[in-house]
Amino acid sequence: MNMNEESVEGSARRIQVRFVTKLGEPYKVPTTAIAIPADLARFGLSSLVNALLQSNDADHQLEPFDFLIDGEFVRMSLEQFLLAKGISAERILEIEYTRAVAPRKEEDPSLHDDWVSAVDGSSSRFFLTGCYDGLGRVWKGAGLCTHILEGHSDAVTSVSIINPKGEETITVATASKDRTLRLWKLNAEGPVNNPMRVRAYKIFRGHKSSVNCVAAQTSGEMVCSASWDCTINLWQTNDFNAEDDLVSKKRKIGAQVEESQLEGEAFTTLVGHTQCVSAVVWPQQESIYSASWDHSIRKWDVETGKNLTDLFCGKVLNCLDIGGEGSALIAAGGSDPVIRIWDPRKPGTSAPVFQFSSHTSWISACKWHDQSWFHLLSASYDGKVMLWDLRTAWPLSVIESHSDKVLSADWWKSNSVISGGADSKLCISSEIPVK
Predict the structure, then answer these.
(1) Rounded CA gap, 212 and 75, in Å?
(2) What is the average pLDDT across 22-49?
(3) Domain boundaries in the chain?
(4) Is 325 helix (H, G, I), strand (E, B) or coil?
(5) Is the pLDDT of residue 10 over 70?
(6) What's the CATH fold of domain 105-238+259-430?
(7) b/e per residue 381-420 (b: at least 16 CB within 10 A)
(8) pLDDT digit string (tens) for 77-122?
(9) Which top CATH class is 14-99?
(10) Rg (Cα) of the chain, in Å, rounded?
(11) Is the pLDDT of residue 253 over 90?
């Protein structure tokens, strides 16, 4: 093993450390204290742990590791870290190691006919994409398209799986610059060799401008939509009394009459934003969160339609997600390279509790991991997707699969990242060990 950059033999000063981990076999090393050079940083520590693992198992494959001291990631030499944190080097230092959160595999890109503006990876069986060619698509994996959702007359801006844990029949929603939302029913086990073309069974009209985002209530009974017209509309998705509540229309194209599609109107409109509403999320049954170009994040009571909370950050906002500890942290990004995170449970919540600023252009997407309090991803017009951990200010990994702006990104199957961009590519970065 080559450790030329940080040679164990080359340092005069040594400190006593004990390596510990929450990982199971075969990643455990002896917990006895050993003396190591104080100038080792992440690379040298990773090489050392790999050497200890190989001493117990000659077949061990080299693995990148990350290291924490007192719950904080080490992103400098041990000596610098101890000095910065005021930790004594005289005691035995306990260093926790974990597998580095970074993709082990990059799938071949799935090409679209135009910009890939939206993705949803909330189902482990498939994922959705929305494209500027006006089509939605359902995928079982890289290059494996099962359904094409056709009917929008302009770019698809947002896609949402309404029942990600449903049975064979799934319902999805799409939003478009054509001012409509559409609902689709399809069988997730569709053909791969010849994608099935599907028409929407419901069309929602009512927004006066482009629809930017659609999000489903946790029960799946309603969806909400955000628009350039500064409003948020709520729509019923269930089919109860559909014939009474909705108008069934047949549209004629050429000599053919299409099958009838139900059309409905919003039953509630949330008014309060003064500029374009760019994002909505519906994390709890009773609450909707929205982000806007008016620099605000708002929390709404679904039953009363009242605006409960306002957060202002002084920047145009493009994206929003709720997650982290207690599923209570608010992450948002917009017209600068900074991802901001608020904790509304703490006093003085007008100021973010975390700020990440490694991107170099607008933030287009941010998404919490569904099984970790610490991890989230971000996407940017700088062409990069970054993976973050709240325990360090530096990105854990930078994914550079795209050659142009990244417009959308999401986690998929908990260990993959899907992303779409202005290069017309859908990229999948997989085998990411988030614990």
Answers:
(1) 38
(2) 94
(3) 14-99, 105-238+259-430
(4) helix
(5) no
(6) Methylamine Dehydrogenase; Chain H (2.130.10)
(7) bbbbbbbbbbebeebbbebebbeebbbbbbbbbebbbbbb
(8) 999 999 999 988 888 999 999 999 999 999 999 999 999 999 999 9
(9) alpha beta
(10) 24
(11) no
